[in-house]
Amino acid sequence: MTSFKGRGATENDVSTRFSLSSREADGDWLDALELVDGEQPRPATTVTIERPRTILARNASPDIGFDQSINAYRGCEHGCIYCYARPTHAWHDLSPGLDFETKLFAKPNAAALLRKELGKPSHVVTPIAIGSNTDPYQPIERDWNITRQCLEVLAECGHPVFITTKSDRVLRDLDLIAGMAKRGLAAVSISVTSLDPAVARTLEPRAAHPERRIAAIARLAEAGVPVHASVSPIIPAITDHEIEAIVARVAAAGARGVFWIPVRLPHEVAPLFRAWLDTHYPNRAAKVMHIIREIRGGRDNDPNFGSRMRGQGVWADLIRTRFNKAKLKAGLEGERIALRTDLFRPPEGDQLRLF
User: Fold this and answer.
1) How many CB atoms lie within 10 A of CB 303?
2) What is the number of structural domains in the chain?
3) Residue 12 lies inside a defined structural domain of this protein
4) Of 69, 79, 182, 331, whose CB neighbour count within 10 A is largest?
5) For all residues of the chain together, what is the average pLDDT?
């Protein structure tokens, strides 16, 4: 397998689940190259404009704590090898591998669509999740500002929002987020998977350095923003030895709560993850997959509601016990953040509100 500096996936095969043609890693994604150290090629990031008809995605999964979300981007430059959103690229005849982290889609009309949807009489006010699929603060947000534009609409309308990210770029919008938090309208979750920069560089190659994420938690907390930390996913024999250290660090930084999810490997993510293990951790690849399969009932992945978020068996119980003890030691009671829904006012359209 080939490891590309700054990229997570080592493969670029297109899924065959939708009868799509196969595209190998030496194929057409090499049409645009950057040079590393003057010689080693790597696929460059490209962004295609996508203009959807709606921007609010509905969720009916009983084990997810929100029912509507916004995804400003499709694909994610962070390149996290474990990302459960990777298979969505196959719907576009693109690879869940390198294509997912290099061939990105941006939705510049997201804020306008959001304003339109919030203005519908049928809109039900419940917290909107931003960052449930791909990261809203991935590097291209610096130039596109789509996440910020959506936050501006939500702030204007007094609509509650949960933000999930693994980037300290969220601090750029602290003015909006802190203002909404003072009104009980905003909360943030920062993902901290590992404190080891060497692990993070291969696991999440273009995500923020672990120390910058810890610093972001501290800044958000100081600004009065309710912030949780997500130690997710926990990967046995790769990151599980850091559980206690991560929980202690995020608690000291000011996180109000912390939670975890065992690594999930749906559809094309499983072979991509196996290839990543063979490249970066060949001596323990078999051990890692053995434990994952025990946690997942003998399979690479468990798609069932409830158990998919918790895992099962001895290994899952052991991780859960360690995690709970670490929380107690750090003084984290698992506070649930409840956002207000009574401040919502529909956006003003061409006609001013009558009241």
Assistant:
1) 11
2) 1
3) no
4) 79
5) 88
Assigned token pair, 171: 């601090």
Which of the four pLDDT bands, split at 50, 70 and 90, describes residue 7?
Answer: low
In this structure, is residue 271 part of a structural domain?
yes
Residue among 69, 180, 51, 190 at smallest CA distance from 126? 69
Q: How far apart are CA 281 and CA 16, in angstroms?
A: 27
> What amino acid is encoded at 283 in this protein?
N
Nearest to 307 by CA among 345, 261, 267: 261
Query: What pLDDT shows up at residue 62?
Result: 63
Q: Is the pLDDT of residue 44 over 90?
A: no
Half-sphere exposure of 226 (CA within 13 A, CB side): 20
d(CA 220, CA 253): 9
What is the distance between the alpha carbons of residues 317 and 333, in angstroms, rounded to a whole number? 19
Global pTM value: 0.88
Q: Is residue 78 part of a domain?
A: yes
Let me know if residue 58 belongs to a domain: yes
What is the pairing mode between strands 56-58 and 68-70?
antiparallel
The CATH number covering residue 72 comes to 3.20.20.70
CB 160 within 8 A of CB 185: yes
> Mapping DSSP to helix (H, G, I), strand (E, B) and coil, where does residue 87 land?
helix
Give per-residue pLDDT as tens, 255-283.
Answer: 999 999 999 999 999 999 999 999 999 99
∠166-140-201 over CA atoms, to 5°?
A: 45
- Per the structure, the complete domain to which residue 61 belongs is given by 43-330
Residue 195, helix vs strand vs coil: coil
Residue 232 is inside which H or E element, if any?
strand 227-234
Which strands form 103-106's sheet, in the order they lie side by side? 46-49, 103-106, 73-74
pLDDT at 51: 94
pLDDT tens for 92-112 read: 889 999 999 999 999 999 999
| The two structure tokens encoding residue 158 | 């007094």
